[in-house]
Structure formats: structure tokens, C-alpha cells
Amino acid sequence: MSAKAGFDWYGDLPAGVECLRRCYSESRRSVSYFIHRLDRETATIKDQSNDPVISLSINPNGVVDRAVEGQWERAELLQASLTLTPAFLRCDWRWTGEPLDIFDVYLPYELMQAAWAEHFKGDPARVNLQAKLVFDDPSILLLMQSILSTILSPRPISAFLMETITSHLISSLLCSENGAIVVRPAARSVLSSPVLQRVKDYVEAHIAEDISLDMLAREAGVSRFHFIRLFKDSVGMTPHAYLIERRMVRACNLLMHTKQSIGEISVNCGFEDPSYFAARFRRLYRMCPREFRKRL
């Protein structure tokens, strides 16, 4: 699970944590959600997600400690309450009290960013959930309780309903007057050298595979919108253009130093269609791959 969306500890639950229900949205057109039960006292749970998270404490009676980026805070929870966790920030958790059921809802970050850009004309790379250990918004609390009730219902839930729920929840958070979101200052314009090198190494290691923008953004530890801008400012070309360039370089090396067929080289450079590979090669080098090999 962690490889899919940054659910660091969900694949191997720590002591004192039991998973009661889970649903991962493969399409990312709707939320993913998890219901966990925490024992009376848990060890420190380390977590970091690529998506913003809103959590509902269902039956709390105890004390929760949380650190976001190393800054600890504490709250006593005695009734149903909400917690907001931003995307990409490291969080540490501890629970002490009666056994607690917690409902975690992961909002597809790209949907939240798209809604922010479309309806609020904001920069999608700069919006995130505010880090709030206790988020006081009665209407969103009621909405989360309604979503939980729908999920726990024995009736099957359609994809359409889940997408509607997702849209309603995202719009409620973006429109909340209680500080649900934060708009970061303009980000630095380039990727740091270690991060950029990590992305480039990933491209080289997986060049024969279907590499998506989401995969590269995950390697960089930023959102998809943010990654496109930072990468272009760092390298001088879009991620797609860079990927095509590296595939063409790999193709030239294979043409020069191996006896692989054009079809084999096409596949080994990440092109499923040899005709498309040949067309891209001809556009860049003004000759077809076969002619390039003959001229060596």
C-alpha cells in the first residue's frame, strides 16, 4: 500500500494498531479511506502521505500527541473530532487512553489542486491542508460522520456516489471559514541538486517502463503540478521532453553498441510501437534508426 500513495505504515501496521476497513481508489477520482483501531497506548507512529488527510476520531477518550515536521502538540479528545494533515509533511503520532477508532480519508491531491485553480483562480502548487490537530468545523464534522455512515452501510456504494462525496468534501474544505487550507508562499524555482539527481536516476533505471508524471513527482517529494514547474525551471524542458530525449540517447547507444533489432531497441527504450519510435527518432536525428546504424 505504501508504494501506491505514501501510506508509510499501512502495509505493516505497528504494535497497537488494527485495520478494520480499507478502500484504495485506483482511479484517484475519489477518496481512499481507512478505519483503524488504536489500543489504549500506542508506540510512536511515523507517517507521511502524498495526499492531504482529514481524520475523524469516532469514539475518543484520551490524549493524542502529534508532531508535524518535528513540532509536537497535544490535545485531549473526549468527543468526535477532526484532524487535518497536509500532504508531504512528516507526522509522528501517539495515542494514550481508551481504545480509539479513527477514520482517515485521503483526498487525491490533484483533485484538490484542480478545484483550487478552477474555482479560486489560485496557484495549484501552493495550496494544501492546514496542519490542525483539532479542526473545529461543525458542518464538515457532520459531513465526515455522514460519509462514515454511508461507508458502513451494507448497501453497495457506486463509483458515482464516491466521486460526488469526494467533490463535496473537497469543496467544503476549500470554502471553510475555519482555516482548513493554507496557501504557501511562492516556492523556490528549482529542484535541489540531490532531488534532481534522484529523479534523473529514476528515469535511467526505469527507462524501458511506462514512467508517469506522478511517479517522478513522488520521487521528488512534491505534487504533480509543482513538479512540472520545478523540473522545467531546473532542466530547461518539460519532464516529457526530457524523458523522450533520454530514451533517444539510450536508443543511439543500443544502435551503436548492440545487435538488437529495431523492435527490441524500441521496447527497451520504452516505446511499445516501433513505428512511433522510428518516427520520433527520425524527427530528432533526420534519419531513421536503420540508417543511423548503417552510417556507423
From TrEMBL:
UniProt GO MF annotations: DNA-binding transcription factor activity; sequence-specific DNA binding
HTH araC/xylS-type domain sequence ranges: 197-295
Keywords assigned: DNA-binding, Transcription, Transcription regulation
Pfam families: HTH_18
SUPFAM superfamilies in the cross-refs: Homeodomain-like (SSF46689), Regulatory protein AraC (SSF51215)
PANTHER family: ARAC SUBFAMILY, HTH-TYPE TRANSCRIPTIONAL ACTIVATOR RHAS-RELATED
Name of this protein: Transcriptional regulator, AraC family
Lineage, broadest ranks: Bacteria, Pseudomonadati, Pseudomonadota, Alphaproteobacteria, Sphingomonadales
